[in-house]
Amino acid sequence: MAKMGSVRENPKDTRGALLRMLKYLGTYKFLLALIILLSIGGNVLALLGPDFAGKAINEAAAGAGKVNFERVYYYAKRMLLCYLLSSAVTFSISIIMMYVSKWIAGKMRKDVFDKLMKLPVGYFDVNQAGDIISRVSYDIDVVGTCLATDVVQIINSIVTVTGSFVMMVIISPLLSVIALITVPLAIFYTSRMRRITQPRFSKRSKVYGKMNGFVEEMFSGQKTINAYAYENGVNDRYDVINHEAADAYYDAEYYGVTMGPSVGAINNIGLALVGILGSALYLLEKINLGQISSFILYTRKFSGPINEIANIVNELYSALAAAERVFTLLDEPEETADAADAEVLADVRGHVEMKNVSFGYVPEKTILHDLSLDAHAGKLVAIVGPTGAGKTTIINLLMRFYDVNSGEIFVDEKETRCLTRRSLRDAYAMVLQDTWVFEGTIFENIAYGKENATMEEVVRAAKAAHIHKFITCLPQGYRTVISADGGNISKGQKQLLTIARAMLYDAKMLILDEATSNVDTETERQIQKAMRELMAGKTCFVIAHRLSTIKNANHILVLNQGDVVESGKHEELMAKKGFYYDLYAAQFE
Amino acid sequence: MKTIFRYLKPYVGAVVFAMFVKLIGTILELMIPYVLEYMIDEVVPSRSMTKVLVIGTLMVLLAVGARTVHVYANRKAVKVAQNTIYDVRRDLFWKSLNFSGSQMDAIGLPSLTSRMTADSYNIQNFIRAFQTMGIRAPILLVGGIIITLTMDAGLASILLVIAPVMIVLIVLISSRGIPMFEKVQKRLDDIIRIMRENITGIRVVKALSREEYEKGRFEAANQRMIRTDSLAGLLMALPGPISTLFLNCGLTLVVVIGAQRVNAGVTKPGVILAFLTYFNMILMGVMALNRVFVMMSKANASANRIGEVIDTPEDLTRLPEAIAPGTHRDGYIIFDHVDFEYKAADESADVQDFGGSGKGLVLSDIDFSMKKGGSLGIIGATGCGKTTVINLLMRFYDATAGHVYLNGRDVRTYDKDELHRLFGVVFQNDVIFADTIRENIVFGRNVTEEQMKLAAEDAKAAEFINGYEDGYDHMAAIRGANFSGGQRQRLLISRALAADPQILILDDSSSALDYRTDADLRKNIREHHGDSTLIVIAQRASSIMGLDDIIVLDEGKIAGHGTHEELLKSCPIYRDIYDTQMGEAR
Predict the structure, then answer these.
(1) Sheet of A509-513: strands edge to edge?
(2) Which CATH class, in words, describes the domain spanning A339-427+541-589?
(3) Nearest by CB to B420, which of A229, A276, A488?
(4) CATH architecture under which domain A15-27+94-330 falls
């Protein structure tokens, strides 16, 4: 829990992020090679075009009445062809890279989501949904945009810079020395600036994440905030974060925006040096004016990309900071893998046994102390006790959402840590306290647990859960779409849907966590009847506060402060006049 | 776009200044090549090294000057972007925070969040880019055209033919591209929605081993996103190469027609050569302009989504007391023949309305009154409209027909905060915020330490809070995930009690409490908060049977109204509820 408040300040592993980005790019190495080839071709064409133009102009320069139109057309045609091809090449390059970047962004989104499916439940208990989501909505977008534009530019730049440098050396090795001063200077400057900007860009990403989390949390509690007229207070708190976000942006960009102009200035100074040194060489008659002109032409071609590189590096680094946040998520420890020799729990009978189980969510605080229980196949175990006694925790352990700190849990005499999680969880049907529906039809929501469920099965489950009538009253019946987060559907209706879902899910063991406490009595009575049928032959763990609903239990576990204080049948416990009796009596006060 | 400009308005001066400075920088920068050409063409042939050095120094000074000016202007631009986006987010947040129930339903939480985040970043980037890039493009473009026109208007007229065709084409493509960006955003919303569903429902997903299915569902949305995004990218990649192609075709035309004009003696050959350079300059201008345009279309989609929220008119405006209906009935809270029906969400007609029986009125002809300090229980089947009664009393929605009065005044005449301050309320599935327990109970009100502790005692929360080493400073996790359902409910009740509210509302807020705790809680409320007018919504008869008055709701109608004893005699539904719950236990 402390994790969300604390801010990671250690230096970022830029190189690692870069290498991993390259790995993503590596999938498309053939397309990247194609881009390089196209880029070389495009550059050659870009050089040939003006050359043909120059030749055509030379022909036209013959003067009034003396122009050889055949030659002019000849060069003009070639010139046009070069430009057509060059446009086609430019277009192809950007399209290829655009697709590659979208694919990579898609792959990253997939990786993040697949990862989410592998993370332990505990991760979601301590991380803001908004913060997790911002990795997909913002960070991956930044990475994708960078790939689509910057990679092309980098490749293009390398080709152009190499090409023009070769030409410069051919014209005058001595003048080219200037490039050997300005380029390292530019690189030195950029890398020095990078050290200043990089942590700031990371911080910006982090602050954005924090802001997203805050916004999400407050919007989801919007009704409560209004009900307590706390809008101003929340707004003041947002104002602080909003300021922080705006400042982090300014702080990062304040240094970021110096890069472009600075590298530009270095190049322009280089140009001045070329002019001065060139003039000196001309005076020493080492070079002619035409050569100076073309040298300057190539210097410009050469420095153009270097100008851009500053911008690209800027974006590249903000993209790397974003990528790193994605990779951090991808590196979160996963739910521990099933043991190599893990068995698949098959032909479940449903004998569940807990032996001396101790557990706490944080090491300092043990919630369950030395808990033991034995539930034979087909029996109904009722777990009762005051709030906070550790009832929900038992479910977390039975389902292996968390693993015990010490002790063992057996299903059919097999230690659950020696079973595959999937087969263990498959053996349970579950109705939780926090009901969950997703945006989809009612049919899909009920059929969720069972692949290829037929309409008949779904209707049967819905009837058993006493929601069939409600569903058929809807204009579109089972095809009605439930809006995101349940929209206007009431808590009770949601609960009925999840009960129907559990009914359809054919499992040997059943977990009910206060599932019936939000359904009205009339419905609940019918449900209980249906439940009894559903429970037949299943091992059931019912966590309910309504004692009347668990009177039929084969075995009642009374929990207090994480320990089983009493256990037995209703009559026995009543006769004892102990803790259970007290709880029961309170109902009539 | 309107939205952006509205927010830029206060900074118009700063924007103009930044762009003016940028203009100076651009001019300084563009002067460098001309100075260099002058040096090569004019100075060098004069063979004076001193002059060369002077001009060279001038170039260096220009370079350094241009840098200083550019950096200055860029920082000014960033400042404007920072301030503007701060304002946008401030208003967006405030507006969203004050949305009415139906406004919230219409836009939805995920979409609202992404408007707050992704869309605001798009706008921020645009505001900065158009100031830093927006000046260079027109200079190159306009400058190039003016120079070519003055050199040879005849040849330059080729541009006047090509340019409109080119611009029409680009605008045509972009006009198709811009709606694509909105589509891309919708696809992203889908992806975010699925992620959120999985994050909140992770236990169910894992319990049912549906990870692979969910991966498939996400991947389907992801692929749709990739397709839409690629299509948008494809459209937006077109203008660049197209403008290059057009200008280069124009250049070929210049050469050919120029050759004819030279042959006719109208044009000098040097002019054609110069056109080569200036066409390049114009091309660079067009490209830069296009880049700004792409960013603008992206920002436009975002601005529209943000504008939609900011410009939503307040729908629950305060009714002037002069024109508000009055009532002669006696009572503190009066529901006067109230009907309620959810307004059809105009945007999302396919989303069904789940209130009540699913169609038509959620509440019909609800009529009751209660005295100050009285207590009322509302009981009834799931979805019968119990919560809606509270929604109307607290004015999250307005009644479709009839009136709701509080202390003799129509609730619509109250200032929103003034009205809400009268209440202490726990909703169904209410929210614990990721903050300290103290802050969750005090919740920004003037609640003393003593009041807070008393409230926690009364709500039976003090016991477990004191169990924490850091007590009331203990941090709650997101959605209170580190508390059990019962602990959460007790914290929420502490929050409701803390300010000794005039009206206390508990909506199904003790469902996770055991009977012992529930009974103690009821006793504490009765004894220590007897002055509060109490409304309890419950499924359990035992939670409400001791109250002054009980209303039994059935499918949005009052099926019984009276005391516990009266209802047992007169209301079959109530008797049935009571018998099921108590009978078995007896």
Answers:
(1) A428-431, A509-513, A539-543, A380-384, A555-560, A563-568
(2) alpha beta
(3) A229
(4) Up-down Bundle (1.20)
